[in-house]
Amino acid sequence: GWFNSGDIGYQDKDGYVYVTGRSKNVIVTQNGKNIYPEEIELLLSKIPEIQECMVYGKEVEGEKELIISVKVIPNMEEIENLHGKDLSEEEIHKIIWNKIKEVNKGLTSYKAIKNLEIKNDEFAKTTTMKIKRYVELQKDKEKNETKEGQARIEAVHAPTYAIDPLACAQNHEKQTQRSQQADHHQQHRGS
Predict the structure, then answer these.
(1) If you write DSSP's letter for every residue of 98-135 in order, what string do you get?
(2) For residue 73, which of 2, 27, 52, 187 is within the disulfide window of CB 3.0 to 4.6 Å?
(3) CA–CA distance, 184 with 135 (Å, rounded to integer)
(4) Which regions of the chain does DSSP assign to beta strands (E)?
(5) pLDDT tens, residue order, the chain (191 aa)
């Protein structure tokens, strides 16, 4: 029988086996093309200004295609040595983005990184010091849900201005109903 390790790779003409990634990490485009994040991460790891990175397919509302994105922990020591001290976050982002654009030139267009996120804290890691991708992606999902929830709360509690007293009363009644429905939904969601 065969042992399925979940690793993806290839064998060269001399019979050597090269592991290029994990099957569960593969990003599949709308056109069915496979992108192996580890291949891109290996290229990015050669950039001195990058301490550590994680490439992933980011879901964006209204977009069918995943956006190839990278989370980067900057190598501040190297950045200061190469570019000077007291740089703003914007300047650091620009420095790293320019380096990523250089890497993109060597990639096919569908593999090119389109989004850079600077990460100021450490990645969640396994005991073997590998990045826990699912944990990092779950953090993003929770952060986005919190932002969406906050936006809904602000929308419900936004002040309304009306000159017509009847329109004002009707609007107030609608807001009260929405608020009660949200409270009702929240109560039943928890049970």
Answers:
(1) HHHHHHHHTS-GGGS--EEEE--SPPPB-TTS-B-HHH
(2) 52
(3) 31
(4) 7-11, 17-22, 27-28, 34-35, 50-58, 67-74, 115-118
(5) 666 666 666 678 998 887 665 556 787 888 888 888 999 999 999 999 999 999 999 888 888 888 999 999 999 999 999 999 999 999 999 999 999 999 999 999 999 999 999 999 999 988 988 888 888 888 877 776 666 555 555 544 444 444 455 555 566 566 666 666 655 555 555 54
